[in-house]
Amino acid sequence: MSESGALTLASLAQMLQTHPWNTRPARLNFEVKPQTEWLISVGYGRKGADLSPARDHQSYPEIPQASMRGLLRDAVESLASWYPVALGLLCGAGTGAADFCGTGSSDKACLACRTFGSPLRRGGWYVSAAGLSDLQRALYQQLDPPPHPRDSWDAPTRLALRESLFQRRMRVAMNAELGRADEHKLFDFETAVSDLRLHGFAEERPPLMPDVQTRAADIVALAVSLSLIERVGSHRRKGWGQVHVQSVVLTCDAEQAPNLPLTGPVLSSLAGELLDRPAAAVGARSEARP
Ligand SMILES: [Zn+2]
User: Fold this and answer.
1) 221-246, pLDDT tens digit by residue?
2) Domain parsing of the chain, residue ranges
3) Cα separation of 105 and 284, whole Å?
4) Torsion angle of alpha carbons 175, 178, 180, 181, nearest 10°?
5) Helix (H) or strand (E) holding 273
6) Ligand 1 midpoint to CA 192 (Å)
7) Which among 84, 160, 186, 191 could disulfide-bond with 37, CB atoms 3.0 to 4.6 Å apart, if both were Cys?
8) What is the structure's pLDDT at 206?
9) Would you call 89 exposed, middle or buried from its count of C-beta atoms within 10 A (0-12, 13-18, 19+)?
């Protein structure tokens, strides 16, 4: 950070050259706050419902890893399409052809391939699932059954509480061609309630890019992209819901790493700096070093 404490791309890059950031992956912790009830179907129902939200191993609702990664990738691609000069063209952009950045070193790949990988290269970032926060989980786990199910006198309470995270709905499946419902087309489904905070993270995967300018720019591009995510699910019948991604915090996979919030004015200022950058500063990555 600079003397004034304001985080800039340059101070971020400088920070990445110092311990522990120079050897340990940077991590962006974030929180997904559903604004509506939501559903990301995993393709099978549960307890008779035709569609159910994805659940983690403890049966709490979650945004699965692949969905979260897809949401972030879509946001990154949107951002890159709006700011092709500052962020560089994505491969295949404008030509409709897949390129996948098959040549050159990893820091020369386009933003999407560099970050998420392609059939030809491994991505530089891992994106986790977004699941119930540790705090919420602890509250529910207090009511988890004792080791022997026969002792769990409060199991109905616990189950009711856990099931209160979901709502059962019923809807009529529409026949798109006819514009009306066919007979016997009621289907029921479950949604997850909005009153949840889901935590996830994106983290660099070793080996770290040697070019700290690009690392800093990518961190900011990902933080901005996270803030662009507004909805989950892509299909009326397979999933929907509005969300806000908030509390993006840059930290590091190391003991006692500092937490740097990348939200509000800090993110606005970094985003302004990144997106106003001429292509030469981001595009000619290694060569742009002073
Ligand atoms: Zn590419």
Assistant:
1) 999 999 999 998 766 556 789 999 99
2) 9-133+165-285
3) 13
4) -40
5) helix 264-275
6) 35
7) 191
8) 93
9) middle
Question: Is residue 261 within 8 Å of 246, Cβ to Cβ?
Answer: no
Contact 204, 124 (CB under 8 A): yes
The CA distance from 113 to 90, in Å, is 8
Beta strands at 125-127 and 239-240: parallel, antiparallel or unpaired: unpaired
Rounded distance from Cα 104 to ligand 1 centre (Å):
11
Q: What is the pLDDT of residue 287?
A: 37
Residue whose structure tokens are 């035709």:
50
Question: What is the model's pTM?
Answer: 0.82
Average pLDDT, the chain: 81
Structure tokens at 119: 């059939």
Residues with CB under 5 A from ligand 1 (ion): 91, 101, 110, 113
Q: Report the separation in Å between the CA atom of 112 and the middle of ligand 1, taken as the mean of its atom positions.
A: 6
> Is residue 123 within 8 Å of 207, Cβ to Cβ?
no
More confident residue, 82 or 100: 82
**Is residue 290 over pLDDT 50?**
no
